[in-house]
Amino acid sequence: MVSVAPVVIDDMTLDDVDAVQEVERTSFPVPWPANAFRHELTQNKNARYLVAREGGRIVGYAGLWLMVDEAHITTFAVHPDLRRRRIGERLLVRIFEMAQALAAEWLTLEVRASNLAAQKLYEKYGFRRAGVRRRYYSDNNEDALIMWTERLRERSVKDRLAKLRIALDHEE
Q1: Annotated catalytic sites, by residue?
Q2: In this structure, are residues 17 and 39 in contact, taking their beta carbons and an 8 Å threshold?
Q3: Which domains can be identified in the chain, with CATH numbers?
Q4: Which residues contact 67 (CB under 8 A, 6 or more apart)?
Q5: In 3D, which of 71, 58, 74 has the Cα closest to residue 12?
Q6: Please, are residues 46 and 66 in contact by the beta-carbon 8 Å criterion?
Q7: 16 has pLDDT over 70
Q8: pLDDT of 143
């Protein structure tokens, strides 16, 4: 049996940008440029970004913007070779925790209409479809589904997150 290093979720730093770019390029047809991540980390006071490390290697990342009382997930990716190992779930749990710590009322995001795996993950964590942004993605004019959580302070949201976090922790 192959031993796998534990996944650690950390705040993204400028030193992480090159490795994040590698995951970004393998994940998206139109990747964000490195200077966009650098700008987010140094200039956008409303932005927060995380990385997932496995054995020191960055294998995923996620970011959000706090916009008044809503936390908008701006980007989210796990290296394609490492998907289906719950790395995305670990990042999503930390996004929820971060949003709650920032006193956000809700979480929201856009996801490609064709990305059923991501939609399933978001739905597992309580996101619901709230609308469509037609031709949102510039590479192929694909629609984006807009998804929202219930209020983060609701007992049902807190209970769901606690239950899912415990299940993830028991896998380690």
Answers
A1: 110, 122
A2: no
A3: 7-171 (3.40.630.30)
A4: 46
A5: 58
A6: yes
A7: yes
A8: 93
Q: Name the amino acid, one letter, at 44.
A: N
Measured from the Cβ of residue 66, the count of other Cβ atoms closer than 10 Å reads 17
State the CB neighbour count (10 A cutoff) for residue 50: 21
Spatial contact of 69 and 17, defined as CB atoms under 8 Å apart: no
Cβ(109)–Cβ(62) under 8 Å?
no
The residue with tokens 């991540």 is: 37
Cβ atoms of 32 and 73 within 8 Å: the answer is no
Whether pTM exceeds 0.85 = yes
* pLDDT tens digits, 132-144: 999 888 888 889 9
**103 φ, ψ to 5°?**
65, 30
How confident is the model at residue 172, as a pLDDT?
60
Measure the CA angle with vertex 92, ends 107 and 167; round to 5°: 125
pLDDT at 4 over 70: no
